Input
Amino acid sequence: MQELAIYGGTRVIQPEEVRSWPPVDKSDEELVLDALYAKNQTRGKHNLELEKEFAAWNGNSHALFTNSGTAALHMCIAGCGIGAGDHVLVTAYSWSSSATCILHHDALPIFIDIDFDTFLIDPDKIEAAITPRTRAIIVVQLHGLCADMDAVNAIAAKHNLYVIEDACQAHGATYKGRKAGTMGHCAAFSLNQNKCLSSGEGGIFVTDDEEIYRNACKLWSFGETARPEQARDYHAYALGWMYRNNELTAAFARAQLKKYDYYFDTLRANGDYLQDNLGGIKGLLQPYVPVDCVHNWYNYNLRIDFDALGISDNRPSFRDAVCAAIAAEGVACSVWQRFILPEMTVFQAKNAYGHGYPWSIPGADEGIDYTLENYPNALRYSECHMSMVQTLRAPNGLDIAAKVVAAIRKVFDNIGRVDPDRILQESK
Output
């Protein structure tokens, strides 16, 4: 067996072999320079054209460019008219913004455990969590895989609930031929540096509903009823933020969107290569993709099967050591999120704004229980998963994907030599 790189052996992938993300070329430079020398750098033609182009690409009636996916999620909450004391259902495992966006508009999250195979919200557990105050379900299309939207939408229709898609990681992913961001009442996308479509920072809110769009626009720009490109009276008609974005970022996003089909095809090919070539490794669980879904492989998630390896103690530490060993071989491998959402202090303390608010709203906290044992699959997933992101991104192709497979196999071939105490102590 080859010596592991983390113990001094030769890396499988050398640093100079993996190209950085996102790729930047003359087309990016031309549009960004056009924005740089334009008279209007706050909200001009690049903002407006990006919104039209993204809506057309994704299949939405309305799109609004904002400064982050988190802002776009808050706009979804406001767009649906959700407010103080309302309840919103959301998965127990995701990035913090999937739940804190609910707090941003003084509503309260109700967490739903995940399906361990897909990492996504478990539709079978939704109805039992619905309360008289429930107004919406946030469906997180996590890691670039879409949830069972037929099941979610059927429950939502039965109980007259809004469906909000957190599609921040799911650009181009599909469920039964429908794109993420087109299957609920509204949706949020992120354009952060790590995302499959990146403009450094940024977000896009989308909807087909005119009223939801108008409500989101008010939140997005100071509570005003008119957008900056329209005739404004500068009067605040509702509680509003300043969630707009600038022309330079919009221009970069436009240039990147023009290349997204190539990015998507590259990611698909690399992720599928890993799916085809990582099978049969003892102690390794690959991602599961339902037959009616197309994954965009934003994250390629591995899970350690501790039972298969006979490991019962200190499982997260062992996972961290394996992850560090894979990273040492040249693969961008990390632990994406170590905590389930109800485990985070803001929810355990039930105190977001002081004085226990918004849980202290009379009657709002009734029946809300954030006991961690209520979410066994989310807890199990948080201690066993590892994420691979940028190594599989364009322009890195199948030659790099093959080396990623070799690196992972090398580590699992030496799994008995992975010493968490040694590896984690040396990494401090």
Observations:
- The domain at 26-259 is CATH 3.40.640.10 (Aspartate Aminotransferase; domain 2).
- The radius of gyration is 22 Å.
- The mean pLDDT is 96.
- The chain has two domains: 5-20+260-337+380-426, 26-259.
